[in-house]
Amino acid sequence: MSKINKKSISALQHELQDATAEQIIAFAAQNLASPIFASSLGQEDQVITDIIATGELDIPIFTLDTGRLFPETYDLIAETEARYGLKIETTFPNTGKVEEMVREEGINLFHNSIESRKRCCGVRKMEPLRRMLGTSNGWICGLRRDQSPTRTEMHAIEWDAGNDIPKFNPLINWTLEDVLAYIKKNDVPYNPLHDQGFISIGCACCTRAIEPGEDIRAGRWWWESPEQKECGLHVVDGKIVRSKDL
Ligand code: SF4
Fold first, then answer.
1. Percentage of the chain modeled with pLDDT above 90
2. What domain range is 46 assigned to?
3. In the structure, how many helices (H) and strands (E) does the chain have?
4. pTM, whole model, 2 decimals?
5. Whose CB has fewer CB within 10 Å in the chain, the N or C terminal residue?
């Protein structure tokens, strides 16, 4: 049974505020009956996979295959599995929901309107994510505090009110430079698109490289205005934050 509940979050935030990523992930493994790690195969998530694998921690890893990913992302799944000798559980959208959506709005419906794009993200990403989180009693993800203004007050552990389980952010205090240094030092496999100007890598049809100085989010759904770009919202400790860029 999990020792972590909504009432204990505040004390645990204090307890874990100076903990290393390795300590936070180990804490999740020790105190959750069924922890799970949601990996988008991004650089931060590859660091967490490396920590889980080298620490031989009993934390299943899953990723969402929206059906629209880059070939490089599929190759990275295979490379990561081979490198660490582990299995990344690949979760797919509900086939009937995808067929219904495409029948009604077309294969590239995300260009039709904001609502259509959000429908696509809902069917291909949010529903499978919720489904997988429903199998666990706490999850781990690769958010960093300096990625976005909405993340500046986040902690190493939060209560994910939307899914009613705790969420661990072991890299919350890391900078991008920390992430890159860890990858280099430990020879962690990463998506080669990062070397071509892709920062946040999602679906191929909705991700582009960015120019130096451009905002990170400029590479996602670039045909929309910035305030319309959330792929799904959830509430953490009473605050609305953007969902992870899966
Ligand atoms: S990122 Fe684009 S293709 Fe992927 S689920 Fe969202 S709208 Fe659909």
1. 78
2. 6-242
3. 8, 8
4. 0.90
5. N
